Amino acid sequence: MRDLPVVSPHGHVDAGLLLADEPFRDPAALFVTPDHYVTRLLHASGVPLDALGVGRGPLDETGARAVWRLLCAHWPVFRGTPVRYWLDAELAELFDVDVRPSAASADAIYDRIAERLAKDDYRPRALYERFRIAVLATTDDPADDLAAHAALAADPAWTGRVVPTFRPDRYLEPAGPGWPGLVARLGAAADADTGTYAGWVAAMERRRAHFRAHGATSADHSHADVRTDPLDAAEAARIYTAALAGAATGPECTALRRHMLLEMARMSTEDGLVMTLHPGVLRGHHGPTAAAFGPDTGHDIPLRAEFTQALRPLLERFGTHPALHLVLFTLDETVFSREVAPLAGFYPSVYAGAPWWFLDAPDAIRRFRAAVTETAGFARTSGFIDDTRAFCSIPARHDMSRRLDAGYLAGLVAEHRLDEDEAAETAVALVTTQPRHVFKL
């Protein structure tokens, strides 16, 4: 498994990074500041986010070195975490760092990495090839013109494959901040009149078509829950009009969002975009941090999840539709065996998404395999999802997943529950054909 290509169907690397192909600025910008996996534990250990460069923009050499020293001085806080595994792998395998980070070794390690980053072999495109990435999916706003994707695809010097992903969350939340303005922006991008509910739906359909034309194969959704209770057209239109005027109640806004999630599934049956759901996150849990530093800064906290009743309206309508691929992720591992696996074990449209974000760790991945495989097998799972903004962590994350899956398969062979040739075939499928099939790549 180790040397097979990387298929990354969900992540947050910017396509512009590969289009520009500029050298990475410095070790802090590469490893620390943009990675909330790293900054959140440092923050929990008393390091302010602004001291880590969060929200400060590009740092000069003095500032970047100060951030790097904070990481190294607090290295023990990562013991036992997957972050430690990923960082160790990146430092050793990419930059030949053979000493443990600490306050004493920080400057020497910084200098080693900075020296390598100045070389052409460490530019983004060269690393893309070195990482053996076959396809990389980004996450994109529905109103994005996708110019970076178009320019990258048209560049004769580029031989990789980067595809956008349609991410409409904030456009589907009428109670969210600035929603009327977002809807107007969506309408402008789609050349549609979003002054009516019908126009809003049409704008979504047009923007999905735009994404499809630029290579997108999936649409990604994350809300507090995945209820898909339908509204009749007149009620949906009434709530939509009230929401635009700021007059809709909280329950009405939630009802409209749940109805629109059902509409997103309907659209997927028509345009073929894979529908991925990863619900159950309270975003911006710490208001003061959210106000000061914005989203994705380490304080999004999981909630309990429920799928069986929530998805029944969707699955009653579309669960057996041949065009729908519905991938269910969760941060609540109690639902793996109780809900996700049984749903994936019956509905031909449903796949159990790999553990991610808080669960993308060795023990949690092993628990996922034990909880899901006995009910849904391997063929009803998604393949690994790295879900990362940290470009250089992609190979380390996939390597960890491959080692864990190989270990799980080896256990089945040792217990005479699987023949060795079947285990080898499954190992290859989990990292090649499975994610390509599930995400229509």
Verbal overview:
This protein is of the alpha/beta class and 441 residues long. It folds into 2 domains: 100 residues, Orthogonal Bundle (uronate isomerase, domain 2, chain A); 307 residues, Metal-dependent hydrolases (TIM Barrel, Alpha-Beta Barrel). Helices cover 49% and strands 6% of the residues. It contains 19 helices and 9 strands. The strands form 3 sheets. Strands 4-5-8-9 form a 4-stranded parallel sheet, with helices on one face. Helix 5 crosses helix 17, helix 11 packs across helix 12 and helix 17 runs antiparallel to helix 18. The protein is globular.
CATH superfamily of the largest domain: Metal-dependent hydrolases
CATH class of the largest domain: Alpha Beta
Number of helices: 19
Question: Could you estimate the helical fraction of the residues in percent?
Answer: 40-55%
By oligomeric state, this entry counts as: single chain
- Main pleated-sheet profile: 4 strands, parallel
How many strand elements? 9
In whole angstroms, how far apart are the ends? 19 Å
Round the Cα radius of gyration to an integer and report it.
Answer: 22 Å
How many domains in all? 2
Strand order of the largest sheet: 4-5-8-9
Shape: globular
